[in-house]
Structure formats: C-alpha cells, structure tokens
Write a structure and sequence with these properties.
Order of helices and strands: HHEHHHEEEEHEEH
Number of domains: 1
Number of helices: 7
Radius of gyration: 25 Å
Shape: globular
Largest sheet: 5 strands, mixed
Strand order of the largest sheet: 5-2-4-6-7
Structural class: alpha/beta
Oligomer: single chain
C-alpha cells in the first residue's frame, strides 16, 4: 500500500475542525435546552420541600394547641433588645413538636435567657428553612441586635401578625393600615394570629383556634420570608419570628427599588424566590401558593383572624 493512500485512510478516522465545531454547537444547544428544564425540576422540588416544612410547623401549632389550649405565644419578658431576657419566639416553643426536644431542653426554653443559650440559638433547624433561599442555607449569621450580636440560626418561616401596621416612624405611607379599632401597632397588638406579647408590661394575650372567626381555612397562620430581605430574621427571638401582610408580598418601594434590610418597619413582610409568588400555611393546616399580584385588600383580609372581611379562599 502506498504511503499516501495509508495516510488518507488514517485521516478519515479523525474529525475535521468543521465537524468538531458542529458537534460542539449541537452540545451547546442541547445544554441550553436542558438547563431550564433542570432548573424547573429543582425549583419544583424546593417548593415541595418548602410547603412540607410549612405544613409540619402548622401541624406543630395544632399539637401545641391540643396540649396547652391555645396557639404558641411569641412572648417578650423584657425589652426586645435585652439578651438577658427569655424573649423566646413561638417557633422556639414548637421545638418539642418538630422532633427537636434535645435542643429545647439544652436551651432551657422558655426559662433560660437568650444570652445563656448562645450555642443553641446558633443552630440551623432545617424545618424552618426554604431550599430556594441561598442566604438562609449558608448558615447562621450575626449582627442581629435582638440576640446580642451573636451567631443566630435563621428562619424562612414566620408567623403572621395580621394586617395592621404603621405606628413606627419612617413607615412608608403605602403600608400604613389600622385595624377596625384604629390600632396601627401590628407588632404589639396584631390583628392576626402571632405578634409580640409584652409579658413584662402585664400583657398576657393568647389566641385559640376558636378566636379565628374569619375561618381557619381563610386565615394565614405562617408564611415564607427571605433572610436577605430583612435583617430581623432568626428563629429563636420573638421579634424576629413574625411578619406582616400589611406589606405586599416581596415588598419594594413604590418605584420598585428595594428597601435596606435594616428598615424592618418597611421590610418585615413575606417573600420568597419561588417564581410568581410565595406559600402560606393557613390556620387549618393547609398550605396555599399565593400569587405576588394578589390584590392588596384581599391579601390583608386573609391575614386577620377576626376582621369580618369577605375574602375569597386563598
């Protein structure tokens, strides 16, 4: 066999540059088609996991109610910024009912103070997290004035204070919304199910399921909140475990820009990275997906426990 013939046969076994470029282009097209599909599947799985977490916490609230006769309290035994007061959140009180008894006992909830339980409040509880939030899944963070600036475990699940809001200086006027009695203080006297209950000032309010006269299937109990939107966001402290529906879902300024995370009076709303909206657990234990474009009046009506509004089921 001639050398030239042999070389031509050998060359036919390899790709030409043009053929290689065509193959690479085809692979790039396939990857471009597959990536969105993979992302959609991943987000669907995250949304299901998030809904399951909300469901577990909602059922834990019912178990607590069966045990104590009322829903868990979100109590302050001293000023909100006092780390030496046992200002435990309702989420902390639920640890017994979400298979976290050891953590509950080690932190001595609700007897011990936040400062004495520093190691425990830094624990990340997966049931309180949403897989779609990259910030909360990075681990605990510091800088929260309510827990004395120590590392604190985050939460993507917060209790619904209701829809009345606006007593704090600097509140954007679009979020100012009194309840039926004219009260704007949604953090201290919310018209929803959870709010800060100031025991050291003599307040001992409790909420029972029978107090939800708007209907348990029509009233928000818990909702999603992104850790990046508001810096007040840890599971242990009463102040940080609640949010309001006076603020729109994924709240922004009127011009569409974001508030600073330390503006809690304008950022303590519900939010998520799920495309199109966010999830809430209602007081009957059901979990619903709420579109971001829900009318403000309907959204606020679904947050009150006894507002008397006529709102469609979520």
């Amino acid at each position: 066999m001639r050398l030239s013939t042999y070389l031509r046969q050998r060359c036919r076994l390899a790709f030409t540059l043009l053929e290689l470029l065509v193959v690479m282009a085809m692979i790039a097209v396939l990857v471009g088609l597959l990536l969105p599909a993979v992302q959609k599947v991943r987000e669907a799985a995250s949304r299901i996991k998030c809904a399951n977490n909300l469901k577990q916490v909602a059922l834990a609230c019912h178990t607590y109610h069966d045990t104590w006769g009322n829903l868990p309290t979100n109590t302050l035994y001293g000023p909100a910024t006092d780390p030496n007061a046992p200002n435990w959140s309702f989420l902390a009180r639920l640890l017994l009912h979400i298979e976290q008894k050891n953590l509950y006992d080690q932190a001595k909830i609700p007897i011990n103070t936040i400062a004495q339980s520093r190691e425990q409040i830094g624990y990340q509880i997966q049931t309180f997290l949403c897989p779609s939030d990259p910030v909360s899944n990075q681990g605990p963070r510091d800088g929260d004035q309510c827990v004395g600036g120590v590392l604190a475990g985050l939460t993507n699940i917060k209790g619904v204070t209701g829809a009345n809001w606006g007593w704090w200086p600097g509140t954007d006027p679009q979020w100012v919304n009194p309840d039926r009695s004219g009260n704007y203080n949604g953090m201290r006297q919310g018209d929803g199910i959870f709010w800060d209950q100031f025991i050291y000032l003599g307040e001992k309010p409790t909420v029972r399921l029978t107090d939800i006269t708007d209907g348990t299937s029509n009233t928000f109990l818990l909702g999603e909140a992104l850790a990046s939107r508001c810096e007040e966001n840890n599971w242990a402290h009463a102040f940080d475990a609640v949010a309001t529906c006076a603020l729109d879902p994924n709240v922004t300024r009127a011009d569409g820009t974001a508030y600073e995370p330390d503006e809690w009076w304008n950022t303590m709303g519900f939010s998520s990275l799920h495309p199109g909206g966010l999830q809430f657990a209602c007081a009957d234990g059901s979990v619903r997906f709420i579109n971001t474009s829900i009318p403000r009046a309907v959204y606020r009506a679904l947050a009150t426990r006894a507002g008397g509004e006529v709102a469609p089921p979520p």
